[in-house]
Amino acid sequence: MLPLALFDTTIASLAERPFVWMVIVIAYLLGAVPFGLILAKWKTGVDLRTMGSGNIGTTNAARAMGRSWGFVVFALDFLKGFAPVLLVHFFSGLDVPDDREFLQVLVGTASVLGHCYPVYLGFKGGKGVATGCGAIVAIDWRIFVIGGLVWVLTRLATGYAGLASILMGVAFPIAAFVIDWPNHRALVVGAALLTLLIVVRHRGNIQRMLQGTEPNARHKKEAARHG
What we know:
The protein has helices spanning 8-15, 19-31, 35-44, 58-65, 67-91, 97-116, 129-139, 141-158, 161-180, 185-201, 203-211, 217-226. With 227 residues, it is an all-alpha fold. The protein has one domain (4-226). The radius of gyration is 18 Å and the shape is globular.
């Protein structure tokens, strides 16, 4: 749970505004739209839940439809987090920056939870990485850049996309804290919760990495080169 004592005044202010809960519910329902599943079914007739990792996100979509369509799925999942959080920034009517950022974090969290636990699919969804990235960009793009750099370096060094996503998630709250803790308190806490969710959603990847059975991009390239 959030350390609510840090945000007592903000919570009291938002609780007086009925539109807040409506925005959070809409963000969840938008986040729950399974774009990867829909596109794969439309383009190839394949149900992503029955192939590869069984995940409805970018990586499995790329396996089913090719890398280009994987990028399309990433972009759409990214927008599920980015669009509602950005709209809150411009149209919430909240004049106090702490109130506005707290609501942005709540909306971003709702979007990510919608993606991971979609009501339309029996609460069995994706891993939340792309949607979480979108929400963070809408609040402070610098944090995403730092996390993205960690992702790229980890992927290049290890070949594991899952490990890259986990370490990117770890980098987000650290970057938010270092960049501007006084003005990003809600984001630091929200990003830490996102990190925890990313780790939980990647627990299968973690187990396969420990067993040595996780797909590895570097190994595939080396095999192709020698094959």
